[in-house]
Design a protein that fits this description.
The chain contains five helices and 19 strands. With 369 residues, the chain is α+β, with helices and mostly antiparallel strands. The strands form five sheets. It has a seven-stranded antiparallel beta sheet with strand order 13-12-16-17-18-19-14, covered by helices on one side. Strands 6-4-8-9-10-11 form a six-stranded antiparallel beta sheet. Strands 1-15 form a two-stranded antiparallel sheet. Helix 4 packs antiparallel against helix 5.
Amino acid sequence: MPTSRPRAYAVRHGARAAVRAAVATAALLVLAACGTTPAPSPGQTSPDQTSPDQTSAGTSTAPVRDLTPQARSSDGALACPGSLASAEGMTVPVRPQGVRGGDRLLPDRQPRTLVVCGYPVLDIMATTPLSAPFPRSTRTVLTGAKRADVVALLTWAPRWNGRERPCTLMGGDETAYLVGADLGDAVVWVAAKADPNACSRATNGDFVSGAPVGVDLAAVTGGRPLPLPVGGGACDQRSWGRLGDDVDLVPAGDPTVTVCRDGADGTARAVPLDRASGVEVVAALRALPTRPTSGTCQGSGGPSDQRFTLMLAWPAGPPVRIGVDPTCRPSVLGQNLESDDAGGLVALVERWSPPIPGPDPDGSVSSPT
């Protein structure tokens, strides 16, 4: 009998089947709790708890603060602080002003200017470890498509559910970022950090997101490539989650649904559902009882031909990945929520996507060229 063990099943960003299998195997070998517990300071939201202005239902009671004068550079965009006092990447210069900041990291509208400030906090090649204060190394004023991409990234970033997730322990450089958005009648700063394990969170001081958006900020400003490719088929889409996925497995809206199964040969088999079938699957997901998830399930660790992933996509914003495996407990893993019983859901999905021989986590995985 195989030994029961936890499995990091709900991967927050997608890739080809062979890559997903390799990442899951690495996560089994070395798991660690993401993040630390620094003491909060003025303008900082402690990442080890929900925001003090956030209720347990995921809504916000944060106030709308008056807009105060802000330091600006000669280009008109917000001036970056000269240094950071903490390496955690969870401190903002001021909490949101002129807008309710507890609803999302950044309002869903284009700012007048958007600046990204970078602060290296860990350099593994340095002969002397970096220490506070950490000086600013870069300042980038984003325009055009890059600005739109970062606004969308922060606008749709999901609220943190308060649960630590398993992380690999790869060594690498780390850079803390501050994103300053000037919306004319409002100012919002967002703090995030790029780390090699994508384990960091982000905050605007009122709203804490569990999404490691600093990884994408590093890519946009040219400091680090994205961890896995974007694009390709529906089953290969990256996602850090979607706003609202801490409240419902399927956030508001009417998404399309694709069933993704990993084959024993390392290929991903995608079955897009038609509208009527997708509506049935979404209704079944929304009817499940849920609780916050850490992103792992407890199972045999062996192959499961019934395992599949549901990829949900909306006309705007990021997709949502929901992993389903009746041999694991919990058997349904969303990106912020989980559910114990997938029996009815499995039978429903198998009407359109029957099981196929799946990969063995303990065996070799090959990918076609």
